[in-house]
Amino acid sequence: MTMINGFTATDAERLSATERALIERRERTLGPAYRLFYEHPLHIVRGEGVWLYDADGKRYLDAYNNVASIGHCHPQVVNALHAQAQVLNTHTRYLHEGILDYAEKLLATFPPALNQVMFTCTGSEANDLALRIARQHTGGTGLIVTELAYHGVTEQIAAASPSLGAGVPLGDFVRTVRAPDAYRLGAENVARLFAEDVRAAIDDLRRCGIKPAALLLDGIFASDGVLADPAGFMQQAVTVAREEGLLYIADEVQSGFGRTGEHMWGFERHGLQPDIVTLGKPMGNGQPIAAAVVRAEVLEAFGRNARYFNTFGGNPVSCAAANAVLEVIQGQDLRSNCAAIGAYFKAGLQGLAERYPLIGDVRGAGLFLGVELVTDRASKAPATDATRQVVNGLRERGVLISSAGPMANILKIRPQLIFEREHADLFVHTLEAVLRDLG
């Protein structure tokens, strides 16, 4: 399967001998499953703050990698890792203050009812765990996700991740619903349509003899096209699900930890309180740590009846890194920065939309933004080829993003939470140069 914004063998002739040799080694040793970004892949050797540096010393403004959300190689995280690694790194079957200190701080950022947490290493594991907990609690197996959702790569969760493509078939227990696309469906319609689609999916599961267990939704629908608005539109769908006995699982792997600006968690924009929340990517700023935050009564049956242990989940070194990340987000008030710079950045992109008809829509929340490119604003026909050219044109000019959506025509922008006005200005000016070159 060809990956969105991916390197293919047809692009190899433009590479240097050194780059071709690295790719040949990579394919020989790692096999065909590993993909590379961009028509001209990057050989990155160093990161600092909002910048990545390649082997030739060229720097790139990183407006995509939300894993290092407080900046690449943040000294507070590096120091925390180093200090704890010098002392102890083992598993959770011994008593240790580190995991408890962090768990208490993390839980304090959630509504009081979400009062217990289980740690894993990846968001995929967290979503897999959440599904197991939901099934144990409800006695059901069915799961509802959006049409192009990505929730992870474990067998069960990959089977509920349509964005992985035809090579990874959906599970019989999965039903998909249309993504809530306000640009194409109308902002006034998305809440009603989303709720109707969820009800229809529940009915279809039951017709097939499958008891539904959960509704699994992103805080911002990233793979579906960076769909965020209008705030509050999820409420009707979640109400329908709960009335029918389903749990609501909020996947905050991409939208969590302050990325939306006004709130710590994406579900808060919709005035909701989930039954389970899954966390990952930016949690350790690159150190592998993830989690499922759960209401105690929902976790009870799984915790008592199902044997579960994650060797590395919640280890002291990972918890030290995650604790440092949370301290930076809170201590430097990065949520406020994210809201302010996100609004400034979005306004700059909207200014480009006034001058370039290729831009059909600018959307998002905080520093999670999407720019939809269309060949015609009236028909809203996706400008897939132009999007590919823009993404690669930005890369050549030293700015990194990717694309998303069913037709890969949405610029997916997720810079570090420490982004400043000068970085937003650089991005907007560079994007305008690329658009100008496209004519």
Automatic annotation (TrEMBL):
It comes from the Bacteria. GO terms for molecular function: pyridoxal phosphate binding; transaminase activity. Its cofactor is pyridoxal 5'-phosphate. Keywords: Aminotransferase, Pyridoxal phosphate, Transferase. It holds the Pfam family Aminotran_3. InterPro entries: Aminotrans_3, Aminotrans_3_PPA_site. Belongs to the class-III pyridoxal-phosphate-dependent aminotransferase family. This is Aspartate aminotransferase family protein. It comes from Pseudomonas aegrilactucae. The lineage of its organism: Bacteria, Pseudomonadati, Pseudomonadota, Gammaproteobacteria, Pseudomonadales.
